[in-house]
Amino acid sequence: MNYWIHNAFITVNGKKMSKSLNNFVTIKDAIKKHGAENVRYYFATTLYNKQVDYSDHNIEDAKKELERLKNTINNLHHSLENTSQETTINLEDYKMKFIEHMDNNFNTANAIATVFELVKEANTKMNQLTKENITETLEFLEEVGKIIGVNLTPEQITIPEQIQTLVQEREKARAEKDWAKADELRNKIQEQGYTINDTQNGPMLTKN
Questions:
Q1: Rg (CA), the chain
Q2: Last residue of a domain, which of 35, 61, 87?
Q3: Same domain, 109 and 128
Q4: Which domain holds residue 117?
Q5: How far apart are CA 14 and CA 71, in angstroms?
Q6: pLDDT digits (tens, 9 = 90+) for 64-83
Q7: Contacts of 202 (CB under 8 A, 6+ apart)
Q8: 197 — phi, psi (to 5°)?
Q9: 171 part of a folded domain
Q10: What is the pTM of this model?
Q11: How far apart are CA 67 and CA 69, in angstroms?
Q12: Where are the beta strands (DSSP E) in the chain?
């Protein structure tokens, strides 16, 4: 490690962290409760020299935000297998803005905001992008993950045969507009540890 950054003071639920207030939280405690990746991501969303308030609510909000980012990445990866379109995202603009923010006093907060601008455009154009553009976008997001300390590699999962059968049955029910049966099958898939998302390129599964 070549550099150390001294961050501003941390409060807990809006109050100064103090043993006398019985609100002292160690890094070990935070990681045990919320997971190292979620804690790292939360602190990366705030400029290091600004005071940050630690709370379960704030960490959970950061966790949900990170999940949205990962969902977009998984959706992009899924669309890569099916797309044959010709639309592109101007990825170089996002890369330049990300670098500019990081060079500006290590402003991870604004850098991550730029990533979500990219995510917004990617979600809008999800089924219109070229394979090359999707691949480059995924590579950039994976590199961003390495910089801020989170795993932004598309999730690779092997779907059990029985789950694939349920997905096929649900697609048949949806085609027949049997929404009650489709919902029932969705719930069965959920109970077995998978979430199904309907995309224009077909159903996509993620492991819970």
A1: 20
A2: 61
A3: yes
A4: 67-148
A5: 31
A6: 999 999 989 988 888 877 66
A7: 82, 171
A8: -115, 130
A9: yes
A10: 0.78
A11: 5
A12: 10-12, 15-16, 52-54, 194-199, 202-207
